[in-house]
Every structure is written in structure tokens, then in C-alpha cells.
Design goal:
single chain, 420 residues, alpha/beta, Rossmann fold, six-stranded mixed sheet, four-stranded parallel sheet, 15 helices, 33% helix
């Protein structure tokens, strides 16, 4: 990702759905103005979701998603349908493409019910209007319906405007940290640089947090974990106390020890849990950690598919730290990227990353799946802070969240502290 590019997780996700040969791919090409997707009269040409990041005025940065047909056949077809339905979990606006020469089918009606169940904003697009003897005038026949032709480009601009109207919202979007600081406030970000760090760049949560601080007219100071104490000592005579210290969760214990109690402290992971809308659930879910028994299954979910290093936090460090904390031999399962099990019943706890690569809707979907199936759900930063006995301090910025915790947290064991 280039420094000037909007991350996919921050873009409005617009999914195109429909039966095979309804003209989804042709319509995607018409809306994007590019030959993005292979078009063919052969059914099932689109075999996997196709993603295209672009600008769609007046919305701004969007992610266009073309999906396989919802009426595919055979064992492979079932897999393609499942992939298409997975896209719904991250979709902000759904476009149902209907073959205008055939009209709505039972498969289309079923998908509309899914849109409604998921409370998705959607529009029905009757494609191939150039092949119809007559098209309703106006071509838009309701708030949710419009006739277009991907061949002649008839009504394509009107469709883009309709999509934009659905995508735009008056709801204020949460800030990562900008709502917690004011102009001129100093924020120190503690960023370890180790073998797992990407060469030549910061990871996405760090980039986005710095940008949010600057947009709030704050001052961002970035240090390594062993530099924090000296920086704080240099600032003290200048009467320039930081408004906030934000740390990578992997060095939470050291940063907490080096940060005076009168300076608020939190982590990138905790801030992103709030930003993505599930911090309250993450704090509530942490309580199950003290109830785990030997053999209990824990699912660790990564939102990205990065190359795993020998001391990877998700697959190596967290299992080790949790074993040290609980004293129990637990059973582990791992997922990454778009993969997320529909059946969560085998698990006692789901432990998710900060979710910087996933949009808010998909993370809320995952949290809701866990809630509906009675499985505790938390994230990396929350569980690390809890095991270190500093979670209450780390969420003190959010009093309604801190109120969920017991007055005295259980303290991490000496063995756990050594493990860090």
C-alpha cells in the first residue's frame, strides 16, 4: 500500500451480486469505466470475488467487489456461492444485478431477504434494458430499483449516483485517537522495530494513528520501547507532559512501567477495537480467560495474511503467554484473512487481532457470530493488558468500558512477566 492510498478497510465496500449471466461483471466494468472483470456469455466466468479500489464521486474511496453467481451448480459451485455470501459480511452497499429480460427469480428474492436480515442498504438493478421492448419511465421505479444497460451505458451515471446516495451517511465516524486530544497536544507512540516489522515502513495501525493525530492538530512523537523513559525525562523540565502514550501491545509491560501513572496509557490494538466498534465486547469477553480449563479450544484470528515470522505474535507468542498465565494446556486453532468459521461452538474463546485490514462491518459480523453462539470474543491488546494487570489503566480513557472491570484486576504471574 502506498503512503497516499486509502486502506481497503477504510473504503466503502460495494458488492455486486446476482445470478450467473445477469451481467454483473459487465455492469462492474461499466460502473468503474474499466475492463476490470472478464466478460463472457459462458455461465460462471467469475469464479472468485474480484476487488477493485477506486474513487466514486461523491462518496470518495470505495472498494468494488464482483462476486460469483448465486445460482452456481455442483460442489465447486457451492464453494463459489459460499465465497459470494462471505462478501456480504463486509458489504456496506449491495447491488443486486437482475437480468431485465427475465425479471426477479426465486434466487433473487432469497438474496433480497438476506440483505434485509443483515440490514444491508441495497439496490435492485435490472440490467439489459436495451433488450426490453419497453422500460418504465422514469427508469428508476422506486427507491431500491433502477433499469440500466451495461452495453449502451444507459442510466449508468444515475446508478452511480444512487449507489453514492446509499453509501453516504450522516452518522459521525469514530476517530482512532483524534477525539481524545486537542490541538497542540503531545502524543507519544511506542513502536518496537524488530525482525517481524516490515522493512522500510510502519505497520498500518501506526500509520493511521499518526495521520489521525495530525488531523487533530496534535503532535506525534515516535520512539522505540527502550527510548521512552529518556524522552519522558527530557520533557519533564519543559513542563510538556504527554496527553497520551500509545504502545504496541507486545511491549505493554515495559511501557507501563516506564510511564508515570498520571499520564494516560493505551495500545494501538485497544484503540482499534474501539474504532472498529467492539471494545466493550472485547473487555467483557476477557473474563472467560480465568475460566479456561485444560483442553479448551481457543481460536486466534488474524485479519491479514502476512508472512509469519518464527516468533509470530498470533501463532507463537500469545499461545505461550496464555499458557504461562493460565497454567493450562489449551488447544489452538488459527485463521487469517477472510476465513472465519460459521460454526464457533467448538471454541471457548475467540481472540482477534486489532482488525486494521478488515472494515467495521466485517468485524462487527464476527463479533455478532460469537455473541449469538455464546462464545467469548476479545482481541490481542485487551488480553495482553489483562494478563499484565494493566487493563483498567489501558481503558481508563473510556469510563463506561472501565466500569466493566472488577475494582482489582488479577495480576499477571511473575512467570508471565518474564515471558514478555
Amino acid at each position: 500500500m502506498g503512503l497516499n492510498e486509502t486502506p481497503s478497510s477504510e473504503r466503502v465496500h460495494i458488492g455486486f451480486f446476482g445470478r450467473r449471466n445477469a451481467g454483473k461483471s459487465s455492469l462492474v466494468n461499466a460502473v468503474t469505466g474499466q475492463d476490470l472483470v472478464i466478460v463472457s456469455d459462458i455461465k460462471g466466468t467469475t469464479t472468485d470475488p474480484v476487488y477493485k479500489a477506486m474513487e466514486l464521486l461523491p462518496v470518495g474511496p470505495v472498494l468494488i467487489i464482483d462476486t460469483p453467481g448465486i445460482d452456481d451448480e455442483g460442489a465447486l459451485g457451492e464453494l463459489r456461492i459460499r465465497r459470494a455470501k462471505q462478501v456480504l459480511n463486509k458489504t456496506d452497499v449491495a447491488v443486486l444485478v437482475i437480468d431485465g429480460t427475465l425479471g426477479k427469480t426465486p434466487a433473487d428474492e432469497a438474496l433480497i431477504r438476506v440483505f434485509q436480515d443483515k440490514q444491508l442498504k441495497y439496490i435492485l438493478v435490472y440490467n439489459k434494458s436495451d433488450l426490453l421492448a419497453g422500460v418504465p419511465v422514469p427508469a428508476s421505479v422506486g427507491d431500491h430499483e433502477i433499469y440500466v444497460s451495461s452495453t449502451t451505458k444507459a442510466n449508468i451515471q444515475a446508478l452511480k449516483e444512487r449507489i453514492a446516495a446509499l453509501a453516504l451517511t450522516e452518522e459521525p465516524k469514530l476517530r482512532i485517537v483524534g477525539d481524545l486530544i486537542g490541538p497542540g497536544d503531545l502524543v507519544i507512540l511506542v513502536v518496537p522495530i524488530d525482525k517481524a516489522a516490515p522493512k522500510g515502513r510502519l505497520i498500518l495501525p501506526q500509520q493511521q494513528t499518526i495521520r489521525d493525530i495530525l488531523e487533530a492538530d496534535g503532535v506525534a512523537v515516535v520512539v522505540k520501547e527502550f527510548e521512552l523513559r529518556e524522552v519522558l525525562e527530557r520533557l519533564a523540565p519543559l513542563d510538556k507532559k504527554p496527553k497520551l502514550v500509545i504502545t504496541d501491545s507486545q511491549v505493554f509491560a515495559k511501557v507501563s512501567a516506564d510511564t508515570p501513572l498520571d499520564i494516560p496509557l493505551t495500545s494501538f490494538s485497544i484503540l482499534f477495537a474501539r474504532y472498529k466498534g467492539f471494545l466493550l465486547q472485547a473487555v467483557q469477553g476477557i473474563k472467560v480467560l480465568d475460566e479456561l480449563e485444560a483442553g479448551d479450544r481457543v481460536l486466534i484470528c488474524e485479519g491479514c495474511t502476512h508472512h509469519r515470522q518464527c516468533d509470530d505474535i498470533g501463532t507463537v507468542k500469545l499461545p505461550r503467554w496464555m499458557k504461562n498465565y493460565t497454567g493450562k494446556e489449551l488447544t489452538w486453532a488459527f485463521t487469517s484473512g477472510v476465513e472465519f468459521p460459521e460454526d464457533l461452538s467448538p471454541y471457548k474463546l475467540i481472540l482477534h487481532c486489532g482488525g486494521c485490514m478488515l472494515n467495521e462491518r466485517e468485524l462487527r459480523y464476527r463479533q455478532k457470530c460469537a455473541q449469538d453462539q455464546g462464545v467469548a470474543f476479545t482481541n490481542y491488546g485487551t488480553i495482553i493488558a489483562y494478563m499484565q494487570g494493566i487493563l483498567k489503566r489501558s481503558v481508563a480513557l473510556f469510563p463506561h468500558i472501565a466500569a466493566e472491570l472488577e475494582p482489582e484486576e488479577r495480576q499477571g504471574t511473575q512467570g508471565l512477566s518474564r515471558a514478555y
